[in-house]
Each structure stands twice: as C-alpha cells, then as structure tokens.
Design a protein that fits this description.
This protein is 33% helix and 26% strand. With 398 residues, it is an alpha/beta fold. It has a domain of 196 residues: FAD/NAD(P)-binding domain (3-Layer(bba) Sandwich), CATH 3.50.50. The strands form 4 sheets. It has a 7-stranded mixed β-sheet, with helices on both faces. Strands 7-2-1-11-18-17 form a 6-stranded mixed β-sheet, sandwiched between helices. Strand 17 and strand 18 form a beta hairpin. 41% of the residues are buried.
C-alpha cells in the first residue's frame, strides 16, 4: 500500500460503522457521511446472531450489547381478550427472543462509541454526485463541496439514494406485499416483559415489545399489494395505518390514539433488494442498500455485519481493489442468497384473512410451544451462543 487509502462510507447506522471499524483497524483512512444531523437512535428490536455474534465478539463489544439487552423474556401469542394461547420463553431452543436482543438505537450508539476515535464522522451532509476515473472517486456533497477518495461504499439502507447514483435502476426492489409501521409508545400497567403477538382477521398483526428505556415498541403489519402508500405524506400514511387498524381488536384503540401525535413513526413497504452486482469501478454497496433480506428473516443485522467484516478483510488482503471486490462477492453472495430465500407461505401464513385462519395460527403456535415439541427441538438444535458461523466462513484477516 503506497499511501493510506481513503475510503468514504455513506450511512452511519450498522453496516457503515462496522465497515469503518475494520477498515481503520487495517490502516485505511475512513470518513463516514450521514444525512441526519446526529445519530439516528430510533428503531425497533434487532438481534445479533450467528456470524454477527462472532464479529461483535472480535470487535470487543459483545459485553456492551448483552448489557443493553431489552429485557424481553420471550414471546406470547395472545387473542383479542389478551389471553395467552402460546408462550415461547427466551431461554427456549425455539425462542423468538435472542439473547443479544437490542434496540437499533442502542446498537448504533455502541458502534459509534467504538469507532469515533478512529473514523471521521460528518453529519448533516449527503452525496449528490459521484464521478470516477481509473485513479479515484470524485464525490460531490449536498453543500457543493467536492472531495476525492480511493473508494466509496454505500451503506445507507434499503432506500439508499447513494445506490441510485452508482447503479441507477439496475438493482431490483422486490416488494413483498407487506407493510409495517413501527413506533414507540408509553408503557402502561398491562404491559409486561413479554413480547405479545396478536393476529387479527383481514391479514393484520400487532406486536408489542418491551424495551430497556421504560417504553414499549409497537409494530403493526398488514398485507396489501397497493404500492401507492409509499408515495403518501406522513399524515396520509398515519391515516392509512389507522384505517387498517380499525376493527382489529385487542390494543387497536391504544395504537390508533398513540399514532396521532407520535413523531417517531416509521412506515414502509417490506422489500428485498436484489442486485446483479454490488460494485461499479471504485464504488460499491453493502448491508440493506445492497442485499436487504427484510425483517422477516431476522438476519438483516447479521448480514450487515458479516458483509462489513468480509469487505474490509478482503480490501486489506488484496493490493488491487478489483481483486478484493471479486473475492468478497465470491464469499458473500451465496450466503446472501440463502438468507433471502423465505420459507414457503411467508408472509401470508402469518397474516390470515379469516377468523378461522387466526385460530389456526394460534393453534399451531400452541402446538410448537408444547412440552413434547420443545423436547424434540432441543435434540436437533444448539444454543444460539454456541453458534458462530451461520454457514459462512469468517477468515482471520489480521
């Protein structure tokens, strides 16, 4: 390496800072640019599992992540009268709740704290143009400043604007026919440390999860093929959510009331990103920007961290960036394709249209939560803390 290579990363969420951590460790000069004026600390539960767990262990932040656990003790399936129909404790082998269950904002803070001294962060700015030549990437920012870098990586999420500057319309955003609204609401007396899942007729699901900040993280999802909802204003989207909630039962009134003045509502159509290539010259993308698997897989955080670790490692191992990108894609793409393959019937089976369908979901959950099934599943499964690979090799690059 003749000079200290300069790398620009767009996005200060999870993939970006993780990439920055490893690149800085390998001697690169790293800048992370973030559109928001400060860290975006909102968001719902994430779990760091498998290969992702192995990576945070190598980063030295596993203890902080476990200490920031949401306190969730498991998942309960409830009916409209809040009666428990099935229960999956967090210590169970088929648990919905991860040992490393953490709020997105808490994970972002931990990643920022462990990188801020080695990585340059620039907030309140974003990329508006990218021009490449054989020797550099010239980047124009929103304040009209122009700067040169050796490499540029987009890590700014499923709706990445930087991705479009690099690849245009080439990557496919595959809509799953599912919408989800996430927001934080005040905790009330009936809330416990259990996550509660309620399935309502007309393909609707509510999920309330405790957090470690004295509030509750609410999620409401529904099936719809209408893509126009994404083009509505925030106020119109809130009206859509309320209209879909109407008549659902259970905590319907509470969720409708809380959404009116809530400024922390995130509403989106659930989509996967499929891209035939992740790199173009000296520019590329990782994380949700490149291969979002959707929250349905529970693997988005792991993919983001694995991708960041492997890309930094391959760049440290190869003198030519083209060779590094090829080696990275050879390792990463089979893993991404496996994760993006959803089980048959997802998300439709979990969002039944009829009351009979709702009773089937609760009955199946009760069977899976029963003692005989739990005993059988323990024979064939390993505790999450013992799993480190998730079917992908993590080379030691140092």
């Amino acid at each position: 390496m003749n000079h200290k290579k300069k790398v620009l990363i767009s996005g200060a969420s999870i993939a970006g800072p993780t990439l920055g951590f490893w690149l800085a460790k390998y001697g690169f000069e790293v800048t992370i640019v973030e559109r928001s004026k400060a860290l975006r600390l909102g968001g719902q539960n994430l779990d760091v599992r498998g290969a992702g767990r192995a990576i945070v262990r190598m980063m030295g932040i596993e203890k902080q992540i476990l200490a920031a656990n949401t306190g969730e003790i498991g998942l309960q399936f409830v009916n409209r009268n809040n009666e428990v129909k099935a229960e999956f404790p967090s210590e169970g082998s088929n648990s919905f709740t991860s040992e490393a269950e953490i709020l997105r904002g808490d994970l972002v803070s931990i990643l920022y704290d462990c990188t801020k001294n080695d990585v340059k962060y620039v907030f309140g700015k974003y990329i508006t143009a990218i021009n490449q030549d054989p020797d550099k990437v010239e980047v124009t920012f929103s304040n009209d400043e122009i700067e040169e870098f050796d490499l540029m990586i987009a890590a700014d999420g499923v709706r990445s604007t930087t991705r479009k500057l690099i690849f245009g319309e080439e990557p496919e955003s595959k809509f799953m026919g599912l919408y989800n609204a996430w927001y934080t609401i005040p905790k009330i007396e009936s809330d416990t440390q259990w996550a509660r899942w309620y399935t309502a007729p007309k393909s609707r699901v509510m999920l309330l999860r405790p957090d470690n900040h004295g509030t509750v993280r609410a999620s409401f999802s529904f099936l719809s093929d209408d893509k126009s909802y994404l083009n509505q204003s925030d106020s119109e989207q809130k009206k859509i959510i309320q209209a879909k909630l109407r008549g659902a039962g259970w905590e319907e009134e509470r969720l409708m009331k809380e959404i009116e003045d809530n400024k922390d509502v995130y509403f989106d159509g659930i989509s996967q990103i499929h891209a035939p290539r992740w790199f173009d010259g000296r520019a590329g993308m990782i994380g949700d920007a490149a291969y979002c698997p959707t929250p349905l897989t529970g693997m988005g955080t792991t993919l983001a961290m694995v991708g960041a670790y492997l890309l930094a490692g391959e760049l440290s191992r190869h003198d030519q960036y083209e060779d590094a990108f090829l080696a990275y894609e050879k390792r990463m793409r089979p893993f991404v394709e496996k994760v993006q393959k959803l089980p048959p019937g997802v998300p439709w089976l979990a969002h039944p249209k009829s009351k009979f369908g709702v009773s089937v979901v609760n009955t199946v959950a009760a069977i899976l939560a029963s003692k005989p099934i739990k005993a059988i599943s323990k024979i064939f499964t390993h505790k999450e803390k013992d799993v480190t690979k998730d079917d992908i090799e993590l080379p030691e690059y140092l």
